[in-house]
Write a structure and sequence with these properties.
CATH class: Mainly Beta
InterPro entries: DUF6454 (IPR046312)
Number of helices: 1
Number of domains: 1
Distance between the termini: 20 Å
Keywords: Signal
Pfam family, one: DUF6454
Structural class: mainly beta
CATH architecture: 5 Propeller
Largest sheet: 4 strands, antiparallel
Length: about 325
């Protein structure tokens, strides 16, 4: 089995989803997680990623944010922007922009790209979901205001019932969250991943630290086993001679779960048909016999899930 996939079987019936799970500490921290982290540390900018599939998603994806996998089903968070936030000339009440308006979604779709469930999440100005992760029992989703230094609601979603439950609220924009399935605490990143958080399940801040890396802003993180996590992200860089055009630099990073220190990172230079780097939006990695498989949904609205694989020699 793969990375954070604890599902042993998934049965789909019209109008309902049922899933049987193997819980944390059975697969996540075993041989498969160890292999994934070992292989990841062998990746470099010279690693060759071969596109294996292009799955057209049969629904409007709006602006995808995070993705995880439970059995044969994919869970993807997304923000539907109704009114874009507008930057203020001067900060107002501690904010640098208006809240805007939107709707938060958690989409569930199958291997053919068919939408099976659209779970609405959020409240008021908090409509922007971030990176998500599955801990073997629940899918964790943060939904924040679409502006830095704001507020967030943290949800957990039961894949068996598709019901969402508010876990807690916190006073910052949480751009991505995952649970350390071995210890039970939650790791999170702020707007642009400039701050790392550790919460307990009731939302108490146990630790807060500054992200020392400025390579990319993490968009989506997943538990990689072996007390480590893998994050994906993007940085927009100015291009010489171009007034408005930005170069999208993508990247992947392996972090130590306990300290949030960098273990290994590398740039990603794969681009979608629309010209976006593949780590711009949701990314999900899993271990394979030959190496590592990467799933990505880099484009907005009418999106495709791009699937790549790279071969890694075993040590």
């Amino acid at each position: 089995m793969k990375k954070v996939i604890f599902a042993l079987a998934t049965a789909l019936t019209f109008g309902s989803l049922t899933t049987a799970f193997a819980y944390p500490d059975t697969l996540q921290y075993g041989k498969d997680g160890k292999q994934l982290t070992e292989k990841f540390q062998q990746l470099s900018r010279d690693s060759v990623w071969e596109q294996k599939e292009k799955i057209d998603l049969q629904f409007n994806t709006f602006h995808p944010q995070g993705m995880t996998k439970v059995g044969d089903l994919y869970y993807m968070s997304s923000v539907e922007i109704i009114e874009k936030p507008v930057k203020y000339d001067q900060p107002r009440d501690g904010y640098d922009r208006s809240p805007g308006k939107g709707i938060g979604h958690l989409f569930v779709f199958n291997t053919q790209g068919k939408l099976l469930k659209d779970i609405k999440l959020g409240e008021g100005d908090m409509y922007h979901p971030g990176g998500i992760a599955f801990d073997g029992k629940s899918v964790w989703v943060s939904v924040a205001e679409y502006r830095p230094n704001s507020k967030s609601i943290i949800y957990k979603v039961n894949p068996e019932t598709m019901n969402s439950q508010e876990a807690f609220r916190t006073n910052d924009h949480i751009g991505g969250i995952l649970r350390d399935g071995k210890h039970g605490n939650l790791k999170a990143v702020s707007w642009g991943s400039r701050t790392f958080y550790e919460f307990n399940e009731k939302g108490k801040v146990l630790n807060k630290s500054i992200n020392p890396s400025h390579f990319v802003d993490y968009q989506d993180c997943e538990n990689a086993g072996e007390d480590q996590l893998i994050c994906s992200g993007i940085t927009e860089l100015p291009q010489q001679g171009a007034a408005t055009s930005k170069y999208e630099l993508g990247g992947l990073a392996l972090l130590d779960m306990k300290t949030m220190d960098m273990v290994h990172e590398l740039p990603i230079t794969l681009f979608s048909p629309k010209g976006h780097v593949v780590t711009r939006n949701p990314v999900y990695l899993e271990n394979t016999k030959q190496g590592i498989k990467l799933y990505a949904v880099p484009d907005d609205d009418q999106s495709s899930m791009l699937v790549y694989e790279t071969s890694v020699n075993k040590k």
